[in-house]
Amino acid sequence: xxxxxFPGHMAKARREVEExxxxxxxxIEILDARxxxxxxxxxxxxxxxxxxxxxxxNKVDMADRKETDAWMARFKSEGKYxxxxxxxxxxxxxxxxxxxxxxxxxxxxxxxxxxxxxxxIRAMIIGxxxxxxxxxxxNIAKKKIAKTGxxxxxxxxxxxxxxxxxxxxxxxxxxxxxxxxDEITGRKLSLTGAIKDAVVPLDEVAIYGIEFLLAHDPExxxxxxxxxxxxxxxxxxVFDAIGKSRGLKAGGNEINYExxxxxxxxxxxNGKIGGYTxxxxxx
Length: 283
Ligand code: GDP
Known about the structure:
Layout: H1 7-21, E1 26-32, H2 43-48, E2 53-58, H3 65-77, E3 81-84, H4 93-113, E4 121-127, H5 133-141, E5 160-163, E6 167-170, E7 174-175, H6 183-191, H7 202-216, H8 218-225, H9 235-246, H10 257-269
Parallel strand pairs: 1-2, 1-4, 2-3, 4-6, 4-7
Antiparallel strand pairs: 5-6
Helix pairs in contact: 6-7, 7-8, 7-10, 9-10
The structure holds guanosine-5'-diphosphate (GDP).
Guanosine-5'-diphosphate (GDP) binds next to α5.
């Protein structure tokens, strides 16, 4: 679920995240593996400053594996601790916890030198809406605690939940807003379900998706829709071909373009056509 972000929401969300940051040793940032750049709000870098960062490339099941590997390498080179996973799978804590341990090793060494006794690593999950924050928290907690929906500013009593052997996790995630640098970012956010359908015109989102998939792997695209189009075809011809193949008519023989648009977006959002990564790691 996504919300409309107004300046008041943003200020409140930022304040909440800043407050919670004071309580933790490490930040676990959840990104959508299909858009690791576009699902990151750069504000986080500003407010976390030098806090160690575990980066979860979530929804890896719907991303391009090669690109995910390239993103992993990039995050490592930036001094972050990345992991790629499907937040719905069991035992994700076994992947996340060792990274949090490594990320905070120096902090705890320093504490030990000062004679401060060992305590659990404290962590919080942060990310923009719909990247899978609640899924990850509920999965680690083994019960439903993270509230669904994303309403910043609705405070609730926070609790620490046990996460693995050495870690404690705040049970409410930090929510940041999706940041649009440009139209293309908006389309990518919409295509992956991070922002509401009303924010970016859906025909532009569908056209962007078609162009990306056709440029990337025309054969897979054609096979999926049982059509025969090429990247150089007019976009309306691609819509017509899909409409015909899928029987999306508006009465008579007219193609129902709205239905085609919705179908394409649905298929891409849900990974039906295969794994794609829309942000390039080497860009
Ligand atoms: P939040 O807004 O960041 O808390 O996101 P949610 O946890 O509510 O997840 C948003 C949607 O993504 C839900 O429909 C989840 O079931 C789905 N989801 C979460 N993680 C994954 C994943 O790794 N793979 C897939 N395919 N879907 C996921």
